[in-house]
From TrEMBL:
InterPro entries: Puta_zinc/iron-chelating_dom. This is Flagellin N-methylase. Pfam families: CxxCxxCC (PF03692). It comes from Paraburkholderia phymatum (strain DSM 17167 / CIP 108236 / LMG 21445 / STM815) (Burkholderia phymatum).
Length: 271
């Protein structure tokens, strides 16, 4: 069944967002007065995946290699424009005040950037009339049918691959060395706008010195989790793992955005 779509300009999708940005987009967002955070997660990477493992290859293209303790990992850093309530660019008439410079992800919505996610209209903010059969076809036979949207998604994947070298350097410049265990949450760093802008510019310019085919971080990474079984498993296989701790978090430590309730026991805390 084809999925038809036509934007009604309702503005619902421009509230309470965590918008993923490419480095150029993040610099543009900061220049407009917006805040950008770093969402970091890491996955254990004992060996290189087969070419046929499309999910692992997708993650590899978005991440850089690193070590946590004696464990090889891949770290994914996502630059995120974060805001609660309306987007700072949203006008009272629900039009976008930065329309010509809006992030790529805004142009792609409601289609999915992640190739492993199927577009589910019920999961989107768009009202029912946006999906009327009178609109143009957005998805046909599971594929994006709109050429502009397909091109934007491809550009987004290219930017992810291109930016990962500079992101490894960015973390080194900022001293950010903690990531949540992938699929459990994110370690969230919120540097000041000025500090992040300077580091982003430096990382982008010096990124050319790094190996673009094998992006790697020389930092000793920590993996943080709020689950006791993950903590025990990570430690048992040699990772430098620690519990997420928001109550006594040092100022420079990241916040933890978990997908699961905390279940770390007091004895885990003492270890
Ligand atoms: S940049 Fe524009 S399109 Fe994107 S969330 Fe903000 S108001 Fe909406
Ligand atoms: S929620 Fe959907 S219909 Fe409404 S402005 Fe966003 S993309 Fe358009």
């Amino acid at each position: 069944m084809p999925i038809h779509f036509s934007c009604t300009m309702c503005g619902r999708c421009c509230h309470d967002l965590r918008l993923p940005l490419a480095i150029d987009e993040a610099l543009d967002w900061i220049a407009r007065g917006g805040e950008v955070q770093l969402f970091c997660d890491a996955i254990v990477w004992p060996q290189e995946p087969q070419q046929t493992d499309l999910l692992a290859q997708h993650r590899k293209r978005r991440s850089f290699a690193a070590h946590s303790g004696r464990l090889p990992v891949r770290v994914t850093v996502t630059l995120v424009a974060a805001f609660d309530g309306p987007c700072p660019n949203l006008r009272p008439d629900m039009s976008c005040g930065a329309y010509d410079r809006r992030p790529r992800v805004c142009r792609i919505y409601p289609a999915e950037v992640n190739p492993f996610l199927k577009l589910d209209p019920a999961a989107k903010a768009c009202p029912a009339d946006a999906w009327s059969d009178a609109g143009p076809v957005l998805v046909h036979a599971g594929q994006i049918a709109n050429a502009d949207t397909a091109a934007l998604i491809a550009q987004s994947h290219e930017a992810d691959e291109r930016d990962r070298v500079a992101k490894a350097h960015l973390c080194a410049l900022l001293g950010y060395d903690s990531a949540a265990l992938a699929n459990e949450g994110f370690a969230v760093y919120a540097p000041s706008r000025h500090r992040l802008e300077a580091a982003l510019r430096a990382a982008r310019e010096s990124g050319a010195q790094f190996d673009h085919l094998q992006p790697r971080s020389s930092l000793p990474w920590h993996i943080i989790t709020n689950r006791s079984t993950s903590l025990a498993t990570l430690r048992s296989i040699g990772a430098n793992a620690r519990q997420a701790e928001d109550r006594f978090r040092p100022a420079e430590a990241p916040a933890y955005l978990g997908f699961f309730d905390e279940d770390i026991s007091d004895s885990d805390r003492r270890n």
